[in-house]
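Supplementary Text 2. Reproducibility record for the structural model of the 323-residue chain.

All settings were left at their defaults, and a single model was retained for analysis rather than an ensemble. We include the record here because the model underlies the residue-level annotations in Supplementary Table 4.
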Amino acid sequence: MTDPREPELPFDAANEPEDFTGPRDQVGFGDLKPARKHPLADKFDQENEAGDNGPPLDGDDDGGVPGEDSNSDDSGDSGDGGGSDDRMGLLDHLGELRTVLIHSSYAAVAATILCWFWSADLLDLLIKPIESEGVYFTAPNEAFLTRLKLSGAVGMFVIVPFVFFKFYGFVMPGLYKKERKVVTPLLLASTLLFYLGVAFAFMVVIPQVVTFLLSFGTDNLSPLIGVGPYFGFVSRLCLAFGLVFELPLLVLFLSVLGVVNPRMLLRTWRYAVVAIAGLSAVLTPPDVISQVMMAGPVLVLYIGSVLISIAVTRKKRRAKEGK
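Retained model, structure tokens:
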């Protein structure tokens, strides 16, 4: 006799499991839902109706065949790395930039090594404006370090076009044909203006400035010029003039973007003069000669920039009227 307190097991006498494939009265896990009074009950019902079929299987997108991409087409033009070799991902761009930097570093090292063999002649050319006064080095390694720095500076000066064109090759694939027609002349002009600024500083400004500054000596006060500080003085002045001579290109770029216009440049010429004077005072030594010799060419470049802006504005206006 069976004990009524003992629960009935879902097994027959032969200890075999019953068939559970038939209809069930229990509430399954998929049928669970919040109570009707719950504030998220309506949202749950909407989401449940939208996803009755359950989540897609691995590799099966919206009922497609597993392993096949439903968004793919015969052209093979999908996202990054999805069958199109023309598009590059972020890591590919970083790899290209790394290659450009490595090649530029190799070129700088090679140019420095080559310039080292002419470092003595380059140093004599550097100190030519003050050769009558004499130049000295006060530390045993100062002459060596100065020649090494001079070789590096001249090497970088020589490979500036190579570095510019390497970076141009890096950004060129992302430019349109019209943009390439604009960027290429700008690159050539920027290189030419940089060289022109450095040459103007070394051949015109530095001899005048050095002569003016040394004139403040007296019979009891003679100059004792160290080769290290003198190299720093010349290199900073040349770099400042090389960068300042890029002003027309900066104004041209802002004019193309529509940030500045000729009317604004002509209306604010007084502020421009003050800004140029302040910039000259910061970038040059604290003497009148160097400041005037920098401010004069920069003012000329500013006027040229205004003319460039006028030409760009008129061309854009004619293009709009032609449409």
